[in-house]
């Protein structure tokens, strides 16, 4: 699942509102590389997650410090055997089309998801739900086929367990229009130009201070920086919206405010164990020792992200850390390749084994300036130990397709941050549509990895869950199928007059509803 799909979206037909310019008191002008998409709460790309979170709300919300907080449900409790959950729903909530939110509406959404359960196989809760029941308008009951400890965390995610008006649910799946219970409604979408979100005056909760958020489509990071400099946009927010050099330049400009969030997720390379030459464990381990991650963070990322040496950030709950990454050692990497039979021919720069060159593809998002810079530095490092890397910068659709099919040697990927990490991210490793499954498919113990993940997700005993999880993490570490680079942070830049802009509690939710100008 790519967090930031760069695909376009169809133009939506609404009455066009008056669009304010950057700097006006009741409006915020933001930028994003693509349109928001059709904004189907039960769908994936090209829906953009920040926008889905603006329109659609969950039963429970992931709050500060990892606490589960009320949202559309005010109270909840599991049955004694853990095989059902009962939710008391908030009263007085309406969708943006005026339809009331109640247990029947919630059940209609969950039934729609269950009719197409196969689309959501990456999320364990979608495999566990047997049925949704609505015993009365204020009560929703979820029956599970077995106890599932992370139920509330899965319910808090941006997708797919959020709710659209029953009036727009289509029998074949998806929605006919983006209609949610959230504080915003989509008022305009022009392909390749902008999306406009207006504040809902009838929102059940505290209304946003801003009247509207205008999201300009700006695909290029340099163009985005120029627009910020010229006052055409008010704010940039995200992991890779600006390259590190540009972010540091804005940090030194007194006209702007910059901030960096705490570590949220892990930026890394997936190393394909199912495709030559990275099916050779010696090659994977040489890659681990041949890339200088400290230099990547220092020179390419300009210190805006901490160095990562583990699959999950140290702050990730329920993860026992302590695994030690192989140190950067170019000589040791070269020696290991020699011992594995990958030798440099006389006068050559690329190692060979039995006449086959040690060459691989490094796939990245072509429109992402930061990934491109990292890829170029990694190419240089690998070349110094005799590995030839071909850089393949593609659009998001092509990149997703190559990850689904396993047609990559190295590919940039990320963990998903809270509340997905670790359980949902590990669960998705069992889905062949994910780069993680493809990267692991050549491992002789892949079936055991998947079995252990299934067991830990179903475990009710904390010690058993921890033992299986530690075995999985230790095995992936030993098999060298991931090269962690840095712990991802969200970065924001805005003009001084905008006021305070907080960070969201998750990687993909931007708290527009808490931004106040001045």
Automatic annotation (TrEMBL):
Domain of life of the native organism: Bacteria
Domain (Solute-binding protein family) ranges: 68-434
CDD domains: PBP2_NikA (cd08489)
SUPFAM superfamilies: Periplasmic binding protein-like II
Pfam family, one: SBP_bac_5
Predominant localisation class: periplasm
Subcellular location: Periplasm
Family: Belongs to the bacterial solute-binding protein 5 family.
NCBIfam families xrefs: nickel_nikA (TIGR02294)
UniProt-recorded name of the protein: Nickel ABC transporter, nickel/metallophore periplasmic binding protein
Source organism of this protein record: Pseudoroseomonas ludipueritiae
